[in-house]
Each structure stands twice: as structure tokens, then as C-alpha cells.
Amino acid sequence: MKQGSFIKSTPLLNDTVFENTVLFITEYNDKGAMGFIINQQFPRKLNELEAFKHITPFPLYLGGPVDQEHLYFIHQRPDLITGGTPITSSIFFGGDFQSAIKHIHNNTLTQKDIKIFIGYCGWDNLELDEEIAEGSWVVLNIEDNPNNAFL
Asked: Is residue 149, in this structure, part of any structural domain at all?
């Protein structure tokens, strides 16, 4: 397991917030792990949030049950969004959000370039490893990712 991995829930997580989810792991170290559910759209779009009511409609994703008061994002456009943390050679976490909003609004960034999440998933040190060992999650090969890519 490493950052940049995809994991998929197993039937052990049915009837939980993680039922039928695929997560992208953005951080994995001796402090724990962080990731985002990438296959569950949030029922509202970004422009339906008061702070972004003047921009183009853009989908939001339910990133996870932790800190649903904040937005997080991953992207593949470091040429347009500065300050992101590299997760893989082509996927970045965070960066200049105002720049991202500007590029979304003028259609320079598309849904293939960026995913915006409400909340995230987090685990303490070794907690995710224990959940994988007990069979709650399966680590996917990139070829197993339904989109065979970041999004």
C-alpha cells in the first residue's frame, strides 16, 4: 500500500458510508492515511454553495465522513494550479484553489482535470492496513480502476 493507490470496499462494509466505494489514497505514512471517495457524487454542485454561486455548475464528490465543512481537491493540471502536493507523477493534491475556481469557471479545467470533494477519509497509523488485512478493502491495480486513470 502506498499513496496514489486505489482501494475498493468489500461486502464487509455494506450498510456503512463506504458501501460500494472506490477511494484514492493521497497520503500514506507512519502517521496514518488520508483518501477520498472518488465514485460518489455529492447531491449539490459547487455553484449551489453560497461562496461559489456565481460560477459555472461543477460536480462535487462526497470525499468521506471526516471534516465535511471543508472542500478538498485533486487534479492533473499543475500547469494551471500552483502549490499542489504531488501524489503520483501526474496527480496533485490541493494547491491554489482560487486559481482552480477561475479555470473551472472559464472551462479551462474540466471534470477530467480536477475532482472537488466535501470531506475526506482518514485513518490513524496502521488502521487502514488492519482494515485491508481483515478484508474490508481490496487494493486495486491501476488496470482495475474502472476509468483506468485518476478520474
From this structure: no
Let me know: does 64 contact 122? Beta carbons within 8 Å.
yes
Which CATH number covers residue 101? 3.40.1740.10
- Strands 85-86, 92-93: pairing kind: antiparallel
Q: Which distant-in-sequence residues (6+ apart) come within 8 Å of 84 by Cβ?
A: 75, 78, 92, 93, 94, 95
Residue 139 has pLDDT above 60, yes or no: yes
Tally of helices (H runs) and strands (E runs) in the chain: 2, 10
Residue 81 covered by a domain: yes
Query: Quick check: is 86 in a domain?
Result: yes
pLDDT digits (tens, 9 = 90+) for 82-119: 999 999 999 999 999 999 999 999 999 999 999 999 99
Instruction: Give this prediction's pTM.
Output: 0.90
Those residues whose C-beta lies under 8 Å from the C-beta of residue 106, and which sit 6 or more positions away, are none
C-alpha cell at 67: 471534516
